[in-house]
Amino acid sequence: MSDALRPLTRPRLYEQVVLRLREHVAASGLEVGDRLPPERELAERLGVSRASVRQAIVVLEVQGLVEVRHGGGTYLQRRTLDSEPVDELVARRNRLPDVLDAREGLETKLAELAAERRTDADLAEIDAALAAMRAQVERGELGGEGDRRFHAAITAAAHSTMLAEFMRTIAEEIAESRQESLRQPNRPPKSLAQHERIAEAIRAGNPRTASTAMRRHLRTVSRVRLLTWNPDDDEQR
Description:
The mean pLDDT is 91. Strand 1 (66-69) and strand 2 form a beta hairpin. The radius of gyration is 21 Å and the shape is elongated. By secondary structure, it is mainly α. The protein contains ten helices and two strands. It has a two-stranded antiparallel sheet.
């Protein structure tokens, strides 16, 4: 049978709510820090259930576009609500656990080896990466480039050609997980502090402490709002 006769898919109602919210922000001139209308009001004005509005807000929240303050409303984090398609969001959610597992397996070993094998030049690059991330975080940025440089410096300090190659093969997925983690509320300064503890252990030449510090850091990286989101939680009424 022709694939053209496959079952039709129905657009999720909350995806339509996301589009309406994006139009509202653009038309009303809301700025970063401004509050969106209350959930109940949005449901009444759009003619949908509060569950659909809530799910739309979650979609925007997991992308770092809004901040939900429990009991205090929903506030803009970006000037626009240009969100990625939900299907792409779902795909990232589905692959993220495997990426995080791979990172923990590889990077804890890299930290251990870095503590054993690092040179003065390696330590200098680790420190430079920390300084770059610190400057970014102090400017109110996420610190993504400094984060990337820090983990790359540890990979280089491990002096393992095979592990470095493994890291290169999943570089795109690692970058995706980094972005996902750093846009969690208050995450950049916490990540920086964890990086500093990892660097201290490597500088001290303590493989076990370095490995443990890296594992704790990556467990923090794994705590992201996206993984608690269920894309099928929508009431079509």
